[in-house]
Task: inverse folding
């Protein structure tokens, strides 16, 4: 018997659990009225930029004059930066699924699903306020941060930004998922 199996048996020996259904919030990404406002992905002028080597540290792209990370055309990439509670996100050769994966942290613990039907790759930017989002950062921010850089043009919330800037929409609903509930577990593993 391997060491791992012995350890697992010790940890699970006095464990009792059951399965049950639990409701979770779910956000479905759909195309809003008027159709999507996404630009087809731009091809590079020359050979596409090389992807970073595995294990190398990610480098933040310099922001453009509007605050969005400047990413080269021709390679799937997404990067965001936050300033004064506002997210500036740039997407290159991106799908709606990549957009959802980047937004997942802001929407936690909700589940997300892409139902746009869009299969192309697109270049786009998204600017939104983190205030009031269900994820950890949004819950920590309850009002506009002090010293907001541009009060004359406050950032919209994520839902408004998606609809106005990209003509995509997040529809909230509920979904039931199976979960495992631990009924009892001994604090100390027992010898077999």
Result:
């Amino acid at each position: 018997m391997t060491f791992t199996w012995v350890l697992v048996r010790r940890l699970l020996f006095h464990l009792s659990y059951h399965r049950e259904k639990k409701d979770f919030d779910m956000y479905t990404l759909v195309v809003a009225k008027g159709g999507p406002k996404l630009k087809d992905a731009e091809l590079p002028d020359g050979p596409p930029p090389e992807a970073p080597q595995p294990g190398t540290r990610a480098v933040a792209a310099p922001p453009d004059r509007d605050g969005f990370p400047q990413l080269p055309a021709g390679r799937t990439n997404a990067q965001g930066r936050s300033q004064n509670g506002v997210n500036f996100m740039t997407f290159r050769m991106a799908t709606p699924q990549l957009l959802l994966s980047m937004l997942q942290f802001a929407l936690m613990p909700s589940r997300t699903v892409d139902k746009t039907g869009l299969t192309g790759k697109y270049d786009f930017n998204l600017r939104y306020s983190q205030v009031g989002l269900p994820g950890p950062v949004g819950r920590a921010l309850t009002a506009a941060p002090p010293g907001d850089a541009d009060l004359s043009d406050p950032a919209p919330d994520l839902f408004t930004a998606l609809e106005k800037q990209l003509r995509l929409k997040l529809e909230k609903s509920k979904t039931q998922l199976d979960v495992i509930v631990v009924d009892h577990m001994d604090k100390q593993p027992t010898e077999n």
Remarks:
- Helices lie at 3-12, 96-107, 136-140, 158-166.
